[in-house]
Amino acid sequence: MSQYVFTAPGVGDFNMTVQRITDALKVEGFGVLTTIDVAATLKVKLGIDRKPYVILGACNPQYAHQALEAEPDIGALLPCNIVVREESDGSVSVVFMDPAAVLGMVDKPQITQLGSEIREKLKRVAETLCA
């Protein structure tokens, strides 16, 4: 496992996995601010066909506010990105940015604490995919 992400297997097809993640994020107080369809962009810009691949930009407004109050430049590290991609065998993988690792770069105790709390929430989101 990488030092800056953690993973979970998708459940069902690609679209079902995206919906389950979105629903689980809501339970933990997150919304999806951005959806970047990497596969569609590569098709339009470069003519490349690839399996479905999206990046979801998840944000919990309460935590974002606390982080911005503690460190105004932290916006450069937000939102929490979640990759959903279809693998060559048809399975779906979900890759979560580890906020504890990323926000730990700021080297402020209150930001480090926020990163740990957000990580626990995102880990619960990942666990719902396995349930």
Number of continuous helical runs: 5
CATH topology: TATA-Binding Protein
Taking the alpha carbons of the first and last residues, their distance comes to: 21 Å
Secondary-structure element order, N to C: EHEHEHEEHH
Radius of gyration from CA coordinates: 15 Å
State the domain count: 1
User: What strand order characterises the main sheet?
Assistant: 1-5-4-3-2
Under CATH at level 1, the class stands as Alpha Beta
Strand content: 15-25%
Give the class from helix and strand content and strand pairing: alpha+beta
> Which runs of at least 5 residues are low in confidence (pLDDT < 50)?
none
Instruction: Write the CATH architecture name.
Output: 2-Layer Sandwich
Gross morphology is globular
- Total number of strands: 5
Average of pLDDT: 95
CATH superfamily: TT1751-like domain
The major pleated sheet works out as:
5 strands, antiparallel
Could you estimate the helical fraction of the residues in percent?
40-55%
Quick synopsis:
The chain is 46% helix and 24% strand. The chain is α+β, with helices and mostly antiparallel strands. It has a single domain, classed as 2-Layer Sandwich (TATA-Binding Protein), CATH 3.30.310.
Descriptive overview:
The chain has 131 residues and is α+β, with helices and mostly antiparallel strands. The protein has a single domain, classed as TT1751-like domain (TATA-Binding Protein). The chain is built from five helices and five strands; from the N terminus they run E-H-E-H-E-H-E-E-H-H. The chain has helices spanning 14-27, 38-46, 61-70, 99-103, 109-130, and strands at 5-9, 31-37, 53-59, 80-86, 92-97. The longest helix is centred in the C-terminal third of the chain and has 22 residues, at 109-130. The relative contact order is 0.23.
